[in-house]
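Hey,
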Amino acid sequence: VVMEHLAKGGRHKLKQKCDLPLTGARVVDRCITEFGVFDFVTTGPEAPPTLVEIAPDTTVDAVREATGFEFQVPEDLKTMLAK
């Protein structure tokens, strides 16, 4: 999924639990926003998403503030390519 990270007014679009009717559960394995790239576990036990790439000039703290759930950050966090 490619999407904007925040809704109008700075509200979280990425949330811990969906508050809308689902068409499928655990079907998205990657979400790309202007803040970074998140990988999601779609099979097996549920686990927090992982921030696998971060936008240039963005901090992990800024991503945490803009995100409506806890996520993991690997030691080898990569920077997204800027165009």
